[in-house]
Amino acid sequence: MIKVFYGDDRVRAKAAIKDFLGENYEILDGADIDIDDLPSIFFGASLLSSDRSILIRDFAENKAIYNELPKFIDSPHKIILFESKLDKRSTVYKVLKDKIEFREFVLPKNPNLNLVFDIYRTAKHDGLKAVAMLEKIKQDEDPIMFFGLLASQTIKDFSARQGTKEKKILKELSKVDLQIKTTKVEPWLLIESFLLRLFSLS
Q1: Which of 72, 78, 108, 123 could, after both became Cys, cross-link 198 (CB 3.0–4.6 A)?
Q2: Tens-level pLDDT at each residue, the chain (202 residues)
Q3: What are phi and psi of 78, to 5 degrees?
Q4: Rg of the chain taking only CA atoms, in angstroms
Q5: Sheet with strand 2-7: strands edge to edge
């Protein structure tokens, strides 16, 4: 039986893979598979058992072998193809969508995403107001994830305009990143301190 799992929520996907394949399974990378390997992978028995559990990563990225997949859907083995993304316009998907299971694992959307960027923009003009905004969402956020979003916005600003203030902010951000990773100081305190300093840097 073949299943195709795809998406960016790797934690949930790995749990589902283990649930279907069990604890012990073979792992293959699609990039390393040749077209001549397909019969032995999908129909061949191993030395120890005729029943096999196989995880194949990024099979669809190897177009030559992915296009052959419809020939092997009667495999007696438990096989999961784990793709980071899936092209639903492909011929293979259209042929197989009603014959095998395709299951998507998507990370939940952060409802505070736009507010995170608002906090960053506000901090450039009013650090105290930005910290007050942060207080309202802090209990629902992970500090490391929040800092990652701040970093992405800072890098985006730097890419758009590589001025003196953008360089200063990026340099300060890298210091905070190092502190979060190497000190025992509460991450939220370091983030709030960064937001308060942002105005002077801007």
Answers
A1: 123
A2: 999 999 988 888 999 999 999 989 999 999 999 999 999 999 998 666 678 999 999 999 999 899 999 999 999 999 999 998 899 999 999 999 999 999 999 877 767 778 888 999 999 899 999 999 999 888 888 898 888 888 888 888 888 887 788 888 888 889 999 998 898 899 999 999 999 998 887 6
A3: -85, 115
A4: 24
A5: 26-29, 53-57, 78-83, 2-7, 101-105
